[in-house]
Amino acid sequence: MTNETIMHQLNHRTIRAFKPTNLSAEQLNTLYSVASHTPTSMFMQQMSIMHITDPDKRAAIREISKQPYVGANGDLFIFLVDLYRNQQIRQQKGKDDGRLHTADIFFQGLDDAIMAAQNVITAAESMGLGVVPLGSIKNDPQKIIEVLNLPKMTFPVLGLQIGVPDQEPQLKPRLPLKFIAFNNNYPKEIKFSDLSDYDQEVTTYYDLRDTNQRSDSFTNQIAGAKLERHYTKRDEIMKILHQQGLCTDEGID
Amino acid sequence: MTNETIMHQLNHRTIRAFKPTNLSAEQLNTLYSVASHTPTSMFMQQMSIMHITDPDKRAAIREISKQPYVGANGDLFIFLVDLYRNQQIRQQKGKDDGRLHTADIFFQGLDDAIMAAQNVITAAESMGLGVVPLGSIKNDPQKIIEVLNLPKMTFPVLGLQIGVPDQEPQLKPRLPLKFIAFNNNYPKEIKFSDLSDYDQEVTTYYDLRDTNQRSDSFTNQIAGAKLERHYTKRDEIMKILHQQGLCTDEGID
């Protein structure tokens, strides 16, 4: 069972090298329109998108993400949880901030922003473009807010670099479906011996990949450095969220 | 600039009434495959999907969501942030939980789950199916965890009800792009007089809608009841997240 859309979705791969061209105004407009038509929690439309073309800002964001392709070829977008807009609307109507500082409403804005980002990825890929999602913009939450000069009640949650692909990476193998999709009951007893075939598949993928950075199985990666405890400014995220006025309020008892 | 995929994305509307049929095994498999090929932060694959067919569980979830269409016609799915799987992998490899309890890693799992949900929405709509996203499963975070009998290190973040549409609602007008997409600088000075045309558009949409529940402008909705302070179990979300062992750890200073 497939069609043009699903074929693209099943063939998703991260593109990190782009040709030295930029999106047209028409392409930009299409991607923004797709973002705006994404489902939005309680119809509150609590997300915004920033398109970063300024070379200094691009360099500053690359510095935060520590990935050389960020702000290199291609177009750079930052998706924001945006409760500032609705705060302004309420203020101009003489209302207090109501529930805007609750964790609940923050998470609703987060859903809006992340769903819009995924919708934009799908749209871009359907146009023959490539995308790399940039969780790395949160490597220094305080710094990215300063670089973007964001007001309180906003928070940058995900970057996307989008452009014309200049590489053809292989499809990265994903966990077998029986490990991620369950009927009625969550399987607390996971047989990890079943993961050995998948581990082998992942190792083979890295062996074949052109730019070979890792060559480790899935379970070794999970047991390895990326989940080890270490110092990182990424752990300032709750502090900076609170500083932005977000997720500070536990509601009414 | 459009194609089949983008046409569907721009025509997204929430479907709340479905015909009394269920998805085929092939359709299910396609939707799960699309979910599994969604971008995943640091390749950690920290989301899972539950397909709820059990009538008692469906009734219990409908009770939580307080929406009559939840668990009625159509197929019901719950998307989880799932750090349990990786915790089990680490334990079976003799490792401690490492960074799994940090806010950072929780948010990465949340991105995984929400992006997968949006990808499934797009795939379902491309197949001619309709979808309603169910943020309402979080109306009682403790209760939904009990109903699904979830282990610690998991959290249900979004439901989707998917089926063959039995209604043709109109397209709901979204904020004009100039209010959500910005070049380099976030516009802190928003002219809300510019929103009056959009407010009128939203009011007209409600006037024309068949099942007319609201007939209020966008800014009146934002200034109105849904963002007013009131008691709701939704505000237990951080407490229940912590109870699940998620987002408890501020990392290493």
UniProtKB/TrEMBL annotation, chains A, B:
Domain Nitroreductase stretches: 12-163
UniProt KW Flavoprotein keyword: yes
Keywords, ordered alphabetically: Flavoprotein, FMN, NADP, Oxidoreductase
Pfam families hit by this protein: Nitroreductase
PANTHER family: OXYGEN-INSENSITIVE NADPH NITROREDUCTASE (PTHR43425:SF2)
Recorded family membership: Belongs to the flavin oxidoreductase frp family.
Protein name, entry field: NADPH-dependent oxidoreductase
